[in-house]
């Protein structure tokens, strides 16, 4: 294996990659992780120039990751300003499905890429940190909702359930995603391994130097490619104070202060870093994924196959949707037909 410099389109970043020496019997997929702030520039056209087939965006890229904000919450107290911050954050989230989802699908179809996009999803008045999946024909495939928001994230985001842990079997490989620190949850990872994941996407907000070690472990453990995308943000990428305040550290920050340093990277099933981590700025980080490397890695370690001991250790996943309210057929809603002045029984969905 040799370290080579990728030659991107004119003006693009030069990212170090590893030539995996792909053979003709195994497909090779060109993949890119986008390291950028939430403000959307002309990324789609640039990606087309890179020849990317699969593109992964960071956590909460659409809707925004509210880094540094506490939404005015303390134990036993919420402030009016914090409530207004949440109202604005709620307004910036997207409905799934909805018009923004249609626009993302159209973008995937226009540029012929499989798209993995981190969004803030609005479901009524509850928000979810989600990942949306789109195919290269411009179809929305489905979503993953973050199962366990971390720390203060839990005051603004709901919890996903087992019904949104998809792995999609696509022409470029079996694709799924886990978001940020839920990647540390062994049972969640195992559920995805059990579905045969080959391209493990890990949108994140963690730019600490310990993050690549977690990604490397997942690649080795799962025998899969790991694509982790993070934002690179400076203070100026957020609204100015007092509209937006980084709690406890606002006075220490200047407009050019880095508040998220990125660290996006791509790792092979053998634990080789193919591209990144990049801590220098906004970038498109690309690598060629030789899917034959998956079989080579699983030759001696298949975590849910020949290396498993199901008679001793096993996992059961509750993968049905969970709702706080359900209705039986006998309690169907009644709709008034004003034109005929008679009642018609209309069944109500079991999910509210």
TrEMBL record:
Residues 18-291 form the CN hydrolase domain. GO terms for biological process: cyanide catabolic process; detoxification of nitrogen compound. The keyword Hydrolase applies. It catalyses: 3-cyano-L-alanine + 2 H2O = L-aspartate + NH4(+); L-asparagine = 3-cyano-L-alanine + H2O. One of its GO terms (molecular function) is cyanoalanine nitrilase activity. The keyword Glycoprotein does not apply. It comes from the Eukaryota. It holds the Pfam family CN_hydrolase. Keywords: Hydrolase. InterPro entries: C-N_Hydrolase, C-N_Hydrolase_sf, Nitrilase/CN_hydratase_CS, Nitrilases_CHs. The active site is at 59 (proton acceptor). CDD domains: nitrilases_CHs (cd07564). Its EC number is 3.5.5.4, 4.2.1.65. PANTHER family: CN HYDROLASE DOMAIN-CONTAINING PROTEIN, NITRILASE. Belongs to the carbon-nitrogen hydrolase superfamily. Nitrilase family. This is 3-cyanoalanine hydratase.
